[in-house]
Amino acid sequence: MYKFAKLNLFIAMLMLPISVLAAMSSTNYMIYADSLETGGGLSSGGGYNLEDTIGEGIISGSVGSNYTIKAGYQAMVLGSLALNIDNYTLNLGDLSTTEIKSASTTITITTDSASGYSASVQSVIGVGLTAVSDGSVTIGEEEYGMAVSGSDAVFADDRSVIAGRVLANKTSPAIGSQTEVTFKAAISSTTPSGDKSQIVNIGVSANF
Amino acid sequence: MIKKIFFLVICTLLLGVVTEANAFSVSPLKQTVTLEQGTGRNVKIKVRNTERLTTKYKISVIGVKQDDGGYPVYGVGIEEAENWVKVEQEVVEINPGKEVEVGFKISIPKGTFPSSHYIGLSAEPVLSGEGNKNFSGKLISLLLLEVSGEVSETLSVINWSGEKSLYWNLDKVKINAVLKNSGNTELPLSGKIRLYNWLDKKVADSDVYLGNNLLPQTQRKNEVLLPIQNGIYLPGVYRAQLDLVYGRTAQKLSVQYSFLYVPIVWMIVGGIALLFIIFVLIKKIINKKRQLSLRGM
Fold first, then answer.
1. Which one of A118, A158, A163, B249 has the fewest CB atoms closer than 10 angstroms to its CB?
2. Does B28 sit behind a cis peptide bond, omega within 30 degrees of 0 on the bond before it?
3. In chain A, which residues have their Cβ closer than 8 Å to the Cβ of B133?
4. Are A120 and B71 an interchain contact pair (Cβ–Cβ within 8 Å)?
5. B137 and B33 share a domain?
6. Do A142 and A102 reside in the same domain of the chain?
7. Angle at CA of residue A17, ends A11 and A23, nearest 5°
8. In this complex, is the C-beta atom of A2 within 8 Å of any C-beta atom belonging to chain B?
9. Could you tell me if residue B160 is inside a domain?
10. Handedness of CA A33, A38, A42, A45 (dihedral sign)
């Protein structure tokens, strides 16, 4: 019987971290009505109110304050941004069910911006084939997308050609940073014949 | 003689490379202008033609937003302040190696609420035989337009949680942070993650990089690594607290995510202990039954 009591005590010690859940507090933090299974309850502290749950985290919390902007302020971040595009005419040629057709251009960016630069697709005019969605343009499937490579490239797989797609980013000054942009397309046996064309325009600016 | 020919060939190749180049630049990188509603001002950017040929450049105003990674994205009709800025000259012709100043006229409409807006002042070469060209690029000089008055700095935490509520291992545990600027002015952000154990004792902390300024009405997604340092972490409930400092008024916001940590070793020890208890209980029951049956005999 004594041994059995000792075992019970051992189990109780194992469970200790969980059993204190309902009573965590300190001078600047307090949780009440908290539980492991369902969670929930209001936590409060010096400058915030929030809902706290175990395993779920905060759902929403916000605070704010106001201040006044006075007119007349003008400032300038000096420096320059230079762009070179080595190929303005990209042609994928006749598409095939047995291979992926691609065409590339290289954008070269130089800037003394301390925050670096970002290059992204600003506009896409025209309709392409079915946009790639699985990360890779595949032979025999109707897919169209773009890939980027280079030290500043933002993604490594094939992605759809859409406005807002960020292509390259650097968070420090760049001297002749090159990013190769490759357009890829493949068709399936059911792809209807016809011509497709798009005009893609990219924008490059310093980071905020 | 051979050396001279070699030199000439190299020069020709280099010139050829220069001829192929189609480079230009803009400056400054960014301007900030604060104006009252109903007033205006002129700003300028400089466009430099670094090509060997005289080139025309199309000058335009575009909207600038921020994606959830913090990158600038550009577009037409995405920002109301695009309509407040007019370009003075839509096309400029620039001689090789020369620079031209282009003016923009800002007019803040009457009744505009205090707020901040990003605009792109852009330049783009007009390419010869443009009909065949299907890839082009523009350079954008950023313009931050602030309309004077009282603005609100409001940061909302949309999500602060991990993928699981129970972890066997604390290494490389990622917590998703989704922040939203619900105010009307951009917010500089900084943060610190602190890990507390079930005794509410801080066991680890580290600074968190949350990216550049968060633009108004924009969300930001970050993955924050749990700041695990060398040492022993006892099993139990842990709390990952993200302490944010944001805005020009250095507002503070804290959010937390609680989870259960049970190391594998403890699971094994607990399992063995449980098996042992079951074994002891079964043995006791068997012994009891035996004793009862012996008494019955």
1. B249
2. yes
3. 88-89, 199
4. yes
5. yes
6. yes
7. 125
8. no
9. yes
10. positive
> Which residues 114-143 on chain A approach chain B with CB closer than 8 angstroms?
115, 118-120, 122-123
Q: What is the pLDDT of residue B227?
A: 85
Write the ipTM.
0.76
pLDDT tens-digit series, residues A63-120: 667 777 777 777 888 899 999 999 999 999 999 999 999 999 999 999 999 999 999 9
Residues of A in Cβ contact (< 8 Å) with B62 = 122, 203
Distance CA B146, CA B118 (A): 9
Q: How confident is the model at residue A53, as a pLDDT?
A: 43
List chain A residues with CB under 8 Å of B66. 208
Give the tens place of pLDDT for each residue, B127-181.
877 667 889 999 999 999 999 888 889 999 999 999 888 888 888 889 999 999 9
Q: Can you give the residue range of the structural domain that contains A94?
A: 81-189+197-206
Q: Give the residue numbers spanning the domain of B171.
A: 155-262
A181 and A98 in one domain?
Answer: yes
**CATH code of the domain containing A157:** 2.60.40
Which residues of chain B make contact with A7, given a CB cutoff of 8 A? 276-277, 280
Q: Which residues of B touch A195 (CB under 8 A)?
A: none
- Which one of B48, B65, B74, B164 makes the best mutation probe of the A interface by having the most chain A beta carbons within 10 Å? B74
- Which residues are CB-neighbours of A137 under 8 A, at least 6 positions away? A100, A143, A144, A145, A158, A184, A185, A186
**Contact status, residue B147 vs residue B84, Cβ threshold 8 Å:** no
pLDDT at A3: 52
The shortest CB-CB distance from B29 to any of A45, A47, A206 is to A206
CA distances from B64 to A26, A53, A167, B28, B104 (A): 45, 37, 16, 16, 16
Answer yes or no: is B2 within a domain: no
Task: Give residue A19's pLDDT.
Answer: 35
Nearest to B137 among A36, A73, A83 (CB): A83
Q: How far is CA B268 from CA A6, B262, B271, in A?
A: 20, 10, 5
pLDDT of amino acid B231 = 76
Question: Do B118 and B58 sit in the same domain of this protein?
Answer: yes
Determine the Cα–Cα distance for residues B160 and A1; give it in Å rounded to an integer. 48
B142, B26: one domain: yes
Q: Does residue B105 fall inside a structural domain?
A: yes
Contact (CB, 8 A) for B50 and B23? yes
Facing residue for A55 by CB, picked from B141, B146, B164: B164
Tell me if A70 is assigned to some domain.
no
pLDDT, tens digit, for every residue of B83-99?
Answer: 999 999 999 999 999 99
Which residue in B239, B167, B226 sits closest to B200, CA to CA?
Answer: B239
| Residue where a domain terminates, one of B123, B147, B171 | B147
